[in-house]
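Subject: mismatched residue count in predicted assembly?

I count 396 residues in my input, but I want to confirm that the predicted structure covers every chain. Input:
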Amino acid sequence: MQLFSRRIVICYLQFDASKRGGTLKASLSPAQRFRLDLVEPTPVASRELFWRRTTEIAIIGIFFLFVLAALQFSRALLLPVTLAIVVGMMMAPLVKGLARIRISPWIASLLLVSVFFVALCILIVVVSGLVSEWVAKNSEMGQRFATSFSSSSGRWRRYATSKADFPGRSASILARSNSM
Amino acid sequence: MSSTLITPLLSILTPAIAQLLLFFATLLFFLASHQNFRRYLIALSEKRKDRLRILRIFNDVERNLSRYVGTLTLINIAIGALTATMAALVGLPTPIALGVLAFGLNFVPLIGPTIMTTVLFAVGLVTFPSIGYALLAPAIFIAQSVIEGQFVTPNIVGRRMTVNPFAIFLSVAFWVWLWGPLGALLAMPLLIVLMVARGHIYPRSGVALSGNGRPA
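Triage response: the counts match. Full output below for your records.
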């Protein structure tokens, strides 16, 4: 270690000498002059123990990385299963309640699953109805969007003063956009 | 022409249908063999103390999850009904569909209401000729969400159940990144599972994640 640092000093001196035309200045490099400012360093009791602990933490860290990769990889399997278990935990008290009035768990769960399925279907149908209606209106939508953006402040002022009804106005916008 | 349309459609739909089947089959089997599942879980350990701990964690996870999802469903039905009424009063088209959408989206914490506000604004922008009028429905919806989050839910669920919003946000971000939009639905339940397990394993360190600084 000592030898190594001395060698660096020598190199620096030679470099310095070539640069300043032979005037040898015994200066340390900035890297050597810099000293770390440590407040009350507390060394570990046992280095071996320290590295063992570090290894444990590193292995746990690697485990988490693998879990992350595994979760990502098995998304198609784990996502539906996890979702089903969460929903199932929510419904479990109902099955227990139905079991109390002598309904077998298989029939009770079949009933609950079909109710859930129907509810989900209704939700999807209603929302997709909205979406498809919107897609159908799409061309008209874009133009109305543009007009409402371009002169919104003027329109708002006009609305505030005249209080004209919206259907009539939007019909006039529609007529204009169709004629264009 | 038709084959070029059908092949990609099938390749998108087949995994979705398979996953949907997987979901319903798991749900059915989990519900039907719930008691057996519990027994297997207990049989995982030999020691009596560990068995008791597993059973307690399982019971608490189940109780907290069913309470959370149950309350959330009731609140969301109210939110959906209110949104539909509000949309009808303001004059937006298809108020019932908007109400159903609000009901469904409110299951996703933080992101759901944000998307709903945006949808209401977009619908308003298309329906009404002025931006000021289009902002009315989102403003009412935000007010409604704030009232729900600040006064209604804490009073029903109790202050003890409140979770740090930052933890919820991180959970949502993580699961959406990992599993896509459906992961958002799982964010809160999985966070609850994690918190329950942690509460059982380290009972006294319940300060870090609880909302108001008191131990959960």
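Chain B touches chain A through 50 residues (CB under 8 Å). Marking this ticket as 'not a bug'.
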